[in-house]
Amino acid sequence: MSASSLPPAPVTAPLTRFVASWRWENVPAEVRHEAKRSLLNFFAVALAGCKDPTLDIAARVYARQAGRAEATIIGRGERSDVLNAAALNAMSANVFDFDDTHAPTIIHPTAPIAPAMLALSETRPVSGEEFLLAFLLGVEVACRLGVAISPGHYARGWHITSTCGIFGAAAASGRLLGLSEQQLSWAFGTASAQSSGLVECLGTMAKSVGVGNAARNGLLSALLAQEGFDGPAQPLEGARGFLPVYGNDPDFGGVGQGLGERWEILRNTYKPYPCGVVLNPVIEACLMLSKALGGPDQALSRIESITLTGHSLLRQRTDRPNVRTGRQSQVSAQHAVPIALLRGRAGLEEFSDAAVADPAVRELGTRVQFRDDDDYSIDAADVTIRLRDGSQFEQSIKIAKGATARPLSDAALEEKLRDLCRYGRSGCEPEALIEAVWDLDSADEAGGLMGLAAGRV
After folding, report:
1. Residue 212 structural domain
2. Run of H or E including 394
3. If exposure means fewest CB atoms within 10 Å of the residue's CB, which of 114, 183, 258, 450 is most exposed?
4. Tens of pLDDT along 419-444?
5. Is residue 104 packed enough to be buried (19+ CB in 10 Å), middle (13-18) or exposed (0-12)?
């Protein structure tokens, strides 16, 4: 029998065994700490997005279909049923594209996973340790599946946060529900039947539905499995299962290798700017160049051209001229570059509808050009500015702030939560929430986090 005709390595069984049996005492200290960092960043970005128009529309529509009001909608002073709350909180966390990023796959793991768990934890006793362990297991499932089908999966147009995030939400919810290996396999089967999300939707409200559904339907898959709702024996590696259908040449064997020894959450990163992660080194360089040019007021009239040199993914994902909305600007180099140069800042206000409408920003964006060089990592870029008098300025970023090799500090994540809490106008008290996240492993009730993040109307 040739290697190509051999059956794929098992995937479903190793993952369900891991999720069902792994214990908190076997989780390394650095992995436990990274789980808290991910949750801290999650609350920061969810509180920033909680009253965005995307959430206003979705919350209004979802409320008309809601069941029992058992779970909190972050930052809005509202409650809904667990499935709708999970969806809305996932949307809120991802709406500004400011959430965590698993560097190898570009999955935003916490947005679809934490909301499902938080909704569930408001309906039953869940200790802090149980919550953190289930969260880590869910992240491991989502990211390992993502690694197995990357980079072809995203290149084909699938929004990997949504398509893989649903399995992480199902695994984490299933662990909190105490599902058996068989039930977890069923949950993965139901999740595989609902896995969806398209890159074409980036920059629009439609993207948020995919992320929201990953949380909602992952939780639903676990709840159905708890009641005996069955599924295929090999939902992940079967001939027409998730991996072969959604991936070009899936790495079946890699999914189960080193479970509990190598943790994908240690490859998670946190953004300093609210945009696509490949823009991070570009923005950092432009902020430095803005100062070198003599400040934002001097930039526009002097610049002839701006050349961005980086990995080809930089051009593929951000060559988007003439964007019309703040949402679209988050994945547009033609907006990110001029806004950073002209304003010397790159916060949420710089990626708003108003910022996009600025004529000076739009005009300067026409001078941006790309040069592909795949010797660069996605965390690196060079920005070269040629002035009208023939002189030029160049800034090279070898490792962008927020990358795995140059991570945001705990203090920076705390400050991010404070800043975004203010931006989102939720009325939440950030200090109490920060303290609760750091102390979560000693909490008797993880659901108490939602009381601190509930906000007000």
Report:
1. 3-270+408-452
2. strand 392-397
3. 258
4. 999 999 999 999 999 999 999 999 99
5. middle
